[in-house]
Amino acid sequence: MIAMQALAVISVAYVLFLFAVAFFAERAARRGRGAWLRAPVIYTLSLSIYCTAWTFYGAVGTAVRGGFEYLTIYLGPSLVLIGWFWILRRLVRIGRSQRITSVADLISSRYGKSNLLGVGVTVLSVIAATPYIALQLQSVVLSVDAFRHADPAAPVVADSQTMTAFWVAAGLAVFTVIFGTRNLDANERHHGVVTAIAVEAIVKLAALLAVGIFVVWGLMGGVTETLARIDASALGEWQVSGGRWAGLTFLSAAAFLCLPRMFQVMVVENDSDAQLRMASWAFPLYLMLMSLFIVPIAVAGLEILPAGANPDLFVLTLPLASGQEGLAVLSFLGGFSSATSMVIVAAIALSTMVSNHIVMPIWLRLREGTASFSGDVRKVVLRSRRLSIAGVLLLGYLYYSVSGGGAALSAIGLVSFTGVAQVLPAMLGGIFWRGATRAGALAGLSVGFVIWMYTLFLPSFGAGTLLPVNLFDQGPLGIAWLRPQALFGIEGLDALLHTVLWSLSLNAVVFISVSLLSFPQPLERLQGAQFVTTDHVGGGARSWSSSAAQAEDLMVMTQRILGAREAQDLFLTEAQRQGLSGSLPDPTPDFLEVLEKRLSGAVGAATAHAMVGQIVGGAAVSVQDLMAVADETAQMMEYSARLEAQSQELTRTARQLREANEKLTRLSVQKDAFLSQISHELRTPMTSIRAFSEILRDSADMRPSDQTRYASIIHDEALRLTRLLDDLLDLSVLENGQVNLNLRHGMLADVLDRAAAAASAEETGPLTIRRRSDNEEVLLYTDIDRLSQVFINLIANARKYCDAPDPVLEIRVRGDVGRVVIDFIDNGSGVAPDAQDVIFEKFSRVGEQKAGGAGLGLAISRQIMVRLGGTISYLPGQGGAAFRVVLPTDLALAAQ
Amino acid sequence: MAGHVLVIEDEPNIIEAISFILSRDGWRVDTHSNGVDAVDVVRAKAPDVVILDVMLPGRSGYDILRDLRDDPATSAVPVLMLTARGQSRDRELAERAGVSRFMTKPFSNSEVLDAVRALIPT
Amino acid sequence: MSAEGPARRARPLFVARETYRRRRLRDAARALPVLGLLLWMVPLLWPLNTEAVSASGALVFLFTVWAGLVIVAGALVSAMNATDRGAAVPDPLADEDDEP
């Protein structure tokens, strides 16, 4: 008989070995040499946590008690994996794209990031998992006892059992805290844990196969002999009820999808489709090998071991009884591995759920109102997750020590399976049916949960423990059709099938009906669209609108959750993607979406949403309001309208650019033309000056009259140059708006008098000016000098260009509301229609006469009138040339 | 060698200056100050050299020059072109139109004289 | 939701040989669990009590089906991997869930 000390040493060594494996895997991943950690085979092996101590020890027990029924527990998951293309592929992709952290997160996130649903699934999971964890502790205790007592049927010492259970639970808590909460991001792989459980998967498979091979070839004498002895045994005939065969296959398939620990390794830890592809055939193979030797071991145990031996421990006691101590130790390690790997992953999964859906929301609620996230959220999250792990294990331990570990192992397992399977309708509805609503999911889950509690979970403690005995006989308050194990008066059903049937069918019916009847919130619909059409949606649906969120606040918060470096990297990447040079991106809806998804990898969708919401404020609500009005088509229309608006904006911008470009080109052409004109206007007088001054210089024998004449030409051209320069400067000043107006009061008649006099003095030539002085009694408040400059120019033009034999200029003044209109009309031939547009341009000269000016007069006049708040324009159809000057009477206002 | 020069220019003072310079050197000078009928005038007077301004009232000097070059009767007559705009583009335009000599105002008297002398076919 | 709309409408009626193969592999992957379920539910037809099927026969049947499913599933996956690797241009609709 192997000494207890030796067993203890071997166990401790094995545990240390697992710690080392986890540690090195973690370090390899950290150093970037962890590609092998993502190998599909590791993923496949990690799925083996499905095979707990319940399988390792309990399957033989089930086979002894219920024949082939034990197989159903493996057929269901095998079908799920072989049919990966139906459900798992989608589930895994959603898990990756939405950064789902747990099954509760999946449900919560899908149904509008509802934390209530998250809490519901978490509570359900914890209740269902606690007995299961207790079961694992019990199996370890029982297997230790099997060694302690050579005779497994001997009575056990309760105290030492409890101690063993306690130390196992404590050890598991330490391991899980160390390797399960290294990364904050629950969506990232726990490489250490996954690698350790992969090793454990090999150990337990090897152990079970070794025992099986020993039994078949060592004890039974070969395959044929074994089959014959099976037929001869109590298990010799097919005695499984059809209902249980089909029902349990379905139940195990459902539980496989919904168990938090399975969801953890299958969906949360998954990072490629390749992993799933391999698992689709390799995991059924693993399950097949695990269940291959169960019946032979059961038959051999029944034959060899004394009657009354616990069939749940045949795997261990058979080698012990045969004196194969090495095999027994291997078997013990296999059972130990089965139990511990399940507990570790379950603790991680449950602690993530508890922390993200219960602890963090409460913490956030408590801190609501405080301006920012002042504490280190990272620490809070990690601490809450660690406490949750300890709490989950403590619960398991308490359950074990209170219940005393009486019930047969597999019974607990199936009760637990039925509990978690209640999530199935909401899960499948959530990923395949866009019409599934939060209200439906909540109602379905509640109904399923209540029925499960009432008809299976509470009664599983035994009639009279938690539920009074007479409840089972007469129903609550004597209502017979509500008896826990005969709902609606249907008796005679197997208790488990009864619960599976009623809970899941009513759950599904209520889920579907309430979904059909209720109308989803906008956020639910967005999430539903993302989940159901996960392959198509790359982020088309947004739940944030543009908002006044402060990028800096978001940064502060993100740093405290993801850590400084990771947060800064994220923000920098996003800023660069937005084309910004700084390190803070604009809080666009897209960015908020990305940020929220990243945060939800750490704290779950609902909490992340709430956190971002706290900073962004009511922005999400406005989207809700917006979208609430919109139905399916309106959503599409809104989206396409947005696209259209964007493209319109693009077109508009392009047009503006084109216009600006054309304007620049035009300006450039104008500038060239202007320079050309200036050059011409300056060079022309200069040519005369130069030519005549050379003539004067070179010709000594010139007549005095010629000399005088040439000198006066030089003089005139010099004056012309000066005038030109004056005009140019004047125009430049006016155009740049640098002119200071000398505003004062004056009568219009006086201004006209002065202008007429000045124009006559300058030019000789007959021009009769006709005025009606009574109309001219208008008081002006303006720059009188500038105004008379305009008038002088107009009168001089008439004098110069009026080609009538008897030129007459008529000046008509007409008062109007707030303005005065002054027309200058001569009796000449006027300005040709095609020239009327250009006469106000610089250097435009109409007609062939040399007028001595540079053609800047009207251009200057127009600039002056603009400054004075009035206009000057050509008035066609008046017989001769006609110009209209419009002047506001109160310039003080108009000038500003 | 009493060559015949036709000056087509719209600035009276410049016409007077050029006429004076050329006459003093012994040239016979005719003047014209309008662009519109300049081609006809050249054809009618058949000068030995034409001095042509670019900016003429009614018609640009380039157009006139192109017409002269297109007409076999006048295609060979040397044309000295004067411009006050003096941008490189103007020289290009003039050369493309078939100018014999191109000068920018203001010019020195001797320059004009030399140019006309050089252009006269001997 | 986004540009998928037109793409989906423009889904070709006939596809190249490789794409065709890939689609049929998916069909097979979808059909396999149905076959497995049917075979594994055969025990429902077995009589109980009188003339019960022998345990060894039942075991052999169930595990043969199991092994067969594993082999076919493995073959399907390796065929899928091979066509995926062989495809120079990935099927644009490869990731699209075919509507039932």
TrEMBL record, chain B:
One Pfam match: Response_reg
Modified-residue entries (4-aspartylphosphate), positions: 53
Note the superkingdom of the native organism: Bacteria
Which SMART domains is this protein grouped with?
Answer: REC (SM00448)
InterPro entries on file? Bact_response_regulator, CheY-like_superfamily, Sig_transdc_resp-reg_receiver
- Keywords assigned by UniProt? DNA-binding, Phosphoprotein, Transcription, Transcription regulation, Two-component regulatory system
Record has Phosphoprotein as a keyword: yes
* Gene3D superfamilies documented for this protein: 3.40.50.2300
- What Gene Ontology biological process does one annotation of this record name? phosphorelay signal transduction system
Q: Which GO terms describe its molecular function?
A: DNA binding
SUPFAM superfamilies linked to this entry: CheY-like (SSF52172)
Q: Where is the Response regulatory domain?
A: 4-120
Q: Does the keyword Glycoprotein apply?
A: no
Listed name of the protein: Response regulator
From TrEMBL, chain C:
Report the transmembrane regions from the record. Answer: 28-46, 58-77
Task: Give UniProt keywords alphabetically.
Answer: Membrane, Transmembrane, Transmembrane helix
**What domain of life does the native source organism fall in?**
Bacteria
This protein's name: Uncharacterized protein
The organism of origin for this protein: Thetidibacter halocola
